[in-house]
């Protein structure tokens, strides 16, 4: 199995599989870099979903 990475919301840092409980983490991600960008990725997705919701409301 390939290594997975997580972003810990409790400690605000990237962790390997062995880390805090999953309830406190975002992931898994395929790389340390992807995990480090977890909050940015989530914010971008939320913005896109909000824009989509706005477009749906305009119909």
Gap between N and C termini: 46 Å
Task: Enumerate the strands of the largest sheet in spatial order, edge to edge or round the barrel.
Answer: 2-1-3
Average the pLDDT over all residues and give the rounded result: 93
Order of helices and strands: EEEHH
- SS-based structural class? alpha+beta
Helix segment tally: 2
Largest sheet: 3 strands, antiparallel
How many separate domains make up the residues? 1
What is the rounded Rg?
A: 14 Å
Quantity of strands, as a count: 3
Protein name: SPOR domain-containing protein
Organism: Acrocarpospora macrocephala
Structural description of this entry:
A hairpin with a 4-residue loop joins strand 1 and strand 2 (13-16). This protein has one domain. It has helices at 32-36, 38-58; strands at residues 5-8, 13-16, 25-29. With 59 residues, the protein is of the alpha+beta class. The chain has two helices and three strands, in the order βββαα. The radius of gyration is 14 Å and the shape is elongated. The chain has a three-stranded antiparallel beta sheet. The mean pLDDT is 93.
């Amino acid at each position: 199995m390939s290594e997975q990475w997580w972003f810990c919301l409790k400690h605000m840092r990237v962790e390997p599989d062995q880390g805090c409980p999953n309830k406190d983490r975002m992931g898994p991600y395929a790389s340390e870099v992807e995990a480090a960008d977890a909050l940015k990725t989530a914010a971008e997705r939320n913005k896109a979903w909000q824009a989509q919701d706005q477009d749906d409301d305009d119909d």
